[in-house]
């Protein structure tokens, strides 16, 4: 019989690590950005403060940001695994992490405005399941803050205002427009997850999944890899900079994917992530023990 205590304990640990310790590739990108900014500038000062914040959060074992965001769990489970039990253990772990201070009481009733003190509510946390060939359970956690969510955008091509047609150049115009409209309001420097195609729902879902990719990877689709690179370069020319106060570093990364669409629709979905890209993963064994951190 599977011991639920192991699962709850290790899922809580996944939440703690995700909330308090930023991924190595993101921290490295921030340090590189700091070295490129002019000393004494607003951009350098902001990035230095961000890096100090990261170090303090790690040292003091406290959340990197007060907005611990929407918790999105991605599970890949063996065939036949009890996903209902896994969902229950995950909710229990979220409640425990909230009680221990690793998550803010961050879940609000949309009608009454009242807070769910445990962060357990309808659609909170978000749980996504798929089956895989492994015997272990692959768990990825993404914490998506509200400020960055507010500046995310979705476009429907053609767009007369942007003079954007249903092609890669039209997609490029949409992405640059999203960056310009966001300015520093999404806590720049940000990371973009972009989906070309899909419907309005799957576009956002697939765009957010791009945040699970490492910042130094490239799309396997050559035209998308080229677009990722060009958007990152073009973003520097906008001069928005950290927190919108000017500088070279407007984005840390751009991750673009494409999925099928209907003939009548051509959506470009841009999900914006703040500098605090909080993602982490773990492989859990059949009894809930930690096999390997990802």
Question: Which terms would index this structure?
Answer:
alpha+beta; 4-stranded mixed sheet; 5-stranded mixed sheet; 294 residues; 8 helices
Which structural class do you get from the secondary structure elements? alpha+beta
Q: Bin the strand percentage.
A: 15-25%
Low-confidence blocks of residues = none
* Largest sheet geometry: 5 strands, mixed
Strand order, biggest sheet? Answer: 4-1-5-10-11
Distance separating the two termini: 26 Å
State the share of residues found in helices, binned by percent: 25-40%
Cα shape: globular
* Radius of gyration of CA atoms, rounded to a whole number: 20 Å
Strand tally: 11
The succession of helices and strands, N to C, reads HHHEHEEEEHEHEHHEEEE
What does this structure look like?
The model has no long low-confidence stretch (mean pLDDT 97). A hairpin with a 5-residue loop joins strand 10 and strand 11 (290-293). Helices cover 38% and strands 22% of the residues. The chain has 294 residues and is α+β, with helices and mostly antiparallel strands. The longest helix has 19 residues, at 42-60. Helix 1 crosses helix 4 (83-99), helix 2 runs antiparallel to helix 3 (42-60) and helix 6 (168-182) runs parallel beside helix 8 (222-237). A 5-stranded mixed β-sheet has the order 4-1-5-10-11. Strands 6-9-7-8 form a 4-stranded mixed β-sheet. The chain is built from 8 helices and 11 strands.
Structure at a glance:
The protein is α+β, with helices and mostly antiparallel strands. The protein is 38% helix and 22% strand. It has eight helices and eleven strands.
